[in-house]
Amino acid sequence: MKLFDGLKKLKEGLSKTRENIVSKISEVVTRKAQIDENTLDELEEILIGGDLGTSLSEKLIANTKSALFKEQDRSVDRVKEILKDELTKLIAPRNGFSVDTPKENAVKIKIILVIGVNGSGKTTTIGKLAYKFINEGKKVIIGSADTFRAAANDQLKTWVNRAGADLIEDISKDPSAVVYETIQKAKADNYDLVLIDTAGRLHNNKNLMLELNKINGVIGNLIPGAPDESFLVVDGNSGQNAIKQYEEFSKYSKLSGIIITKLDGTAKGGSVLQIAAEKNIPIRFIGLGEGIEDLQEFNPSEFVNALFS
Ligand SMILES: Nc1nc2c(ncn2[C@@H]2O[C@H](COP(=O)(O)OP(=O)(O)OP(=O)(O)O)[C@@H](O)[C@H]2O)c(=O)[nH]1
Ligand SMILES: [Mg+2]
Asked: pLDDT tens for residues 115-131?
């Protein structure tokens, strides 16, 4: 996808979240002859209602206040400009994602485990990731570790075909056995990237959560230090519940990144900002639709710009 198309997609995708946050801010600011404490309190309420969470909202308003009171120009545009700058600072960029394995790793295969609650968008995201990395010249294999439902397996197969990746599947086996086979094949045939799709699970299902340990164990036994990445896939509609999912899954799995999907259909995209500002984990990718190209690397300043556009 071209850069321009990507930005357009991002702007369009964030339209409901923009209405929920930025349009409301504009309305409040425009109504006021001057920006005073009360107006800023109103803005803070909007931010909290827009899923930024109390702590980030307070910080953002406090920083905006100090910046604003140094200024002569307190026009709507200027206020929005300052909010945007301060927000970008608060969700400052983290390390980008690289599909290459660290040089010191003996085995040069990148293993990415994809986990999350039911229906969050794992399988779809795996298809999109495979497509992206195949286009970048990588040899990609996918392991179907969701062996509980035949339909899940078929859905993954469709995505694998679309992306042009290879697949290891066997619904008669348990998830760890499929993972084992996938990694053996990846080692034998010199794949660059392994993506593991898993079944959706809720944190209160202890057995399924512990199964993640087993999968991680199998991977680590075959390639010491792997998996390189464990991505938690969160539905953008979850709002504040996204934070809860992150906290619960990190108890069982060492997470290395978050992917937030379905931002195209939700007004609750503000939670992305809260995670980016407050949680000690990078947001790696965002999902902006059901198409194979509708996945973007998360870029904090692009995200804020698109939100305020
Ligand atoms: N609009 C939109 N829909 C998405 C996005 N990502 C996934 N979906 C849709 O969300 C639904 C669930 O996606 P799946 O990929 O099956 O989710 P999953 O996490 O694999 O689900 P389980 O395996 O059942 O836990 C599907 O209808 C997808 O098309 C996105 O970024 N935008
Ligand atoms: Mg799935």
From this structure: 999 999 999 999 999 99
Ligand 1 test: best mutation among 197, 290, 292, 298, most atoms within 8 Å of CB? 290
Is the pLDDT reported for residue 95 higher than 70?
Answer: no
The predicted model gives 161-167 an average pLDDT of 98
Predicted local confidence at residue 77, as pLDDT? 87
Does 289 contact ligand 1 (Cβ within 6 A)?
yes
User: 126 in ligand 1 pocket by Cβ < 6 Å?
Assistant: no
Residue 10's alpha-carbon distances to 14, 45, 287, in angstroms, are: 6, 25, 9
Helix, coil or strand: residue 283: strand
Q: Which residues, including other chains, have CB under 8 Å from residue 158's CB and lie 6 or more apart?
A: 127
116 CA closest ligand 1 atom index = 19
